[in-house]
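To start, one record:
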Amino acid sequence: MIHFLLNDSSLPIFEARDHILKQLKIKNVLIIIGDTGSGKSTQVPRFLLNEYIEPHSKIACTQPRRLAAMSLAKRVSQEIEKSTGSLVGFSVRFERCVSKHTKIIYLTEGILLRELASDPLLSVFTTIIIDEAHERTLFTDLLLGIFKEIIKLRKYLKVIIMSATLEVNKFFNYFWNTVSILVPGRLFEVELLYAKHAEKNYLRTSIMLIFNIQRSFFGGDILLFLTGEDDIEEFCLIMTKLLKLYKKNIRVYPLYSNLSSEYQEELFQLHKNNSKDKDVYFNVIASTNIAESSITLDGISFVIDGGFSKIKIFNPRLKIDSLLIYPISKASAHQRSGRAGRTKPGKCFRLYTENCFNFKLADQLCPEILRTNLHNMILIIKKIGIEDLVHFDFIDPPPPETIMRALELLNLLGALNSNGLLTKIGLVMSEIPIEPQSTKAIIESKKYRCCNEIISIIAMLSSNFTMRSSSTINIEKGWKSGIIHKDGDHLTILNIYHLWRSKCKSKIWASKNGMNYKLLEFVDKLRIKLINLCYRLGVKLISEFEDNRNYFSKIRKAIFSGYFLQTARKLTEKMYITDLDHHSVLIHPSCKVYKSYRCVMYNSLFFSTALFMCIVTKVNDSWMKNYYNKD
């Protein structure tokens, strides 16, 4: 039996400890509902460790985000005074820190789904915890459906569904032999302060509010919720300039998923380090919705809630993935405010009216499975061995049209054969957690002997790099300096990465050229992980640098081999028409295309005032004819 320190007994979850353990003895499925910061994610796996663990068994605790899985594993390891990867470890995309002694594994939902391919009953785990179930991610819903079947075959498997807010009735109806446990609320009171009118420029309003807090209160960290990386980096840049000018005791930190482990660790130590300083500082953490519930930051006294987040919505008829800035739900607003009441009383400034909260915000966000493309999910489902997608028992069945669109795409990419079974290419795609078009480009790049270049481009695209990230580059100057390539954005992205590396990965060069240094660091590590994964899967990587005019042409051909379904032809001076579905589209203003080309390929379509192509590169008309004639 393993004994460990229980040094967080003040957390609300401890009041429910005995009840949780009692119910698990008689129930297979347990639903735990508790506010953000109640201690569910860190303490429930520890409760189980000493009660239910068998000599060769493990506890799995899934998280919707890699950052959450890593930070939780490190936090719990510190609490039990063990090194991360010994008793408690994590497994996320491209990174794994476990040992033969590991009993608790924090892992992303995608990683657990891939475990099912080799162990369909997940026999190594005695208990599986689905954390943050209220987010209703695509993979959460898929796992719930799979566990519903596994429980029928594994009599003693325990499944715990944990959530800050949850549609309890829906889950009760979905599972049999289950019970819910409500954990007490937050530790301290949070005062809610609403805007008198809707704020049009919430970034400017947030900055003014931060300086007002600094003038009016003595200490306390501030958590600011923004919509995405671009907003966060813009905010940090503006604040850095203002702080140099006004010399305020404020420190600014960004927080989003594509940040290094070292930087994440620094963030989690902010509160401790601040308490040691002689001078009082306000730490301002500008975060995406990752800080709503996935991770916990100590010392937060003030929350500024802009009321928006970015969500991806797929339109199966237009075949468009749109990343939209969308109002948050009431549930998200509740979680955001709860971040301020963890260690002491706090305040939450909502940059929207109380009337907006009461009558305009939805109670819950629509489940991801009803609004996203399904091609990656189908690849995993096929690998696991689930063939009947139509009759699979989803808690909320996805739209049939979305399923058909995903099957069509995978068939055209060569991932599925005419019988709907995975091909060799499909098997590789199911193992590499990036877009299937990107995997196809990597596989095909060996024909053109430019695998290193394609992996660099794909690593940039997979890190959410956008041409808006380099919007400060003037096209004319950028072309002359060698940053912008005349044939399109994919090659410009490659130039950016190569130039940064040639400058010894300089932070000064990145800042001078308007690049996100932390993102480039992430890309550099991701690139190495992609290469290692390709070697493990037996994907041949061949690269030969060619200092001639065919070098960039071959790179374009390799990219095109994965993105041949995402092409458009020039219709007028500014208007293009897509080849596959005949949509009228424009080149997005953020693109660094030097001139208008007859035929182009694009990375994605984006809808705002019109339908725009993002990350655009020239293709030869003959390439398009060859592919479409072949198909």
In short: Residues 432-630 form one domain.
